[in-house]
């Protein structure tokens, strides 16, 4: 290859690959520029896809699949003495839920459909557990995790807020996939 042609070729290689596709001079260059342009596009698309799904990945990592901050009134705190519970529906009328005022004075709320076969779960005051009477499933009152019986998954947690003596549902966390 003459020196002039070599020079011409190097100059030619420095141009943008996509531009080179229109005036390439041989099959080798054609393959090279096509491959390079394809790789650039593929890498760019991968990065763009990764960035666009990042918020969902972070949410999934935190286990925070739902969080509508709309407050839904449940009950006045004075109407829910320690060691008692009240049923309500959240986030929709089709989702039964249970709010418990524990003997220690904490407020806990979960969707009350058992994660085994959907029977309603009750607050068992004496032993402070959540009980599903259908197949003797038990859940921990403090976190909604199954502790005995057939249920394998925890109950969805309902976040609470108390404002001016009224207890509100403020969001829901489904903690399993
Ligand atoms: S439905 Fe609750 S233990 Fe079976």
CATH architecture of the largest domain: 3-layer Sandwich
Contiguous runs where pLDDT drops below 50 for at least 5 residues:
none
Give the SSE string.
Answer: HHHEEEEEEEEEE
Tally the helices: 3
Give a list of the ligands. FE2/S2 (inorganic) cluster
> Helix coverage percent of residues?
25-40%
User: Order of strands in the sheet with the most strands?
Assistant: 5-6-7-8
Strand content: 25-35%
Distance between the termini: 63 Å
The CATH superfamily title of the largest domain: Rieske [2Fe-2S] iron-sulphur domain
The geometry reads as elongated
Structural class estimated from helices and strands: alpha+beta
- The top-level CATH class of the largest domain is Mainly Beta
Radius of gyration: 30 Å
For the sheet with most strands, the description reads: 4 strands, antiparallel
Averaging pLDDT over every residue, what do you get? 81
Number of domains: 2
What's the gist of this structure?
By secondary structure, the protein is α+β, with helices and mostly antiparallel strands.
Structure write-up:
The chain has helices at residues 3-14, 17-23, 27-62; strands at residues 72-76, 84-89, 96-101, 107-111, 122-124, 129-132, 137-140, 146-148, 157-163, 166-173. With 177 residues, the chain is α+β, with helices and mostly antiparallel strands. It has 2 domains: 15-62, no CATH class; 72-173, 3-layer Sandwich (Rieske Iron-sulfur Protein). Strands 5-6-7-8 form a 4-stranded antiparallel beta sheet, with no helix packed on it. It has a 3-stranded antiparallel beta sheet with strand order 1-10-9, with no helix packed on it. It is elongated. It starts with a helix and ends with a strand. The structure holds FE2/S2 (inorganic) cluster. GO terms for molecular function: 2 iron, 2 sulfur cluster binding; arsenate reductase (azurin) activity; metal ion binding; monooxygenase activity; oxidoreductase activity, acting on paired donors, with incorporation or reduction of molecular oxygen. This is Arsenite oxidase subunit AioB. It holds the Pfam family Rieske.
């Amino acid at each position: 290859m003459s020196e002039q042609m070599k020079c011409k070729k190097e100059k030619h290689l420095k141009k943008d690959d996509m531009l080179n596709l229109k005036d390439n001079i041989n099959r080798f260059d054609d393959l090279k520029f096509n491959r390079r342009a394809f790789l650039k596009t593929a890498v760019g698309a991968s990065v763009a896809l990764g960035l666009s799904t990042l918020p969902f990945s972070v949410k999934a990592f935190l286990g925070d699949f739902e969080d509508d901050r709309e407050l839904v009134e449940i009950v006045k705190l004075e109407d829910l003495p320690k060691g008692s519970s009240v049923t309500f529906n959240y986030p929709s009328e089709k989702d039964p839920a249970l709010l418990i005022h524990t003997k220690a004075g904490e407020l806990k709320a979960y969707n009350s459909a058992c994660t085994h076969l959907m029977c309603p779960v009750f607050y068992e005051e004496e032993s402070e557990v959540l009980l599903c009477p259908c197949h003797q499933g038990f859940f921990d009152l403090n976190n909604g995790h199954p502790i005995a019986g057939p249920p394998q998954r925890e109950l969805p947690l309902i976040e609470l807020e108390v404002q001016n003596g009224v207890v509100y549902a403020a969001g829901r966390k489904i903690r399993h996939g």
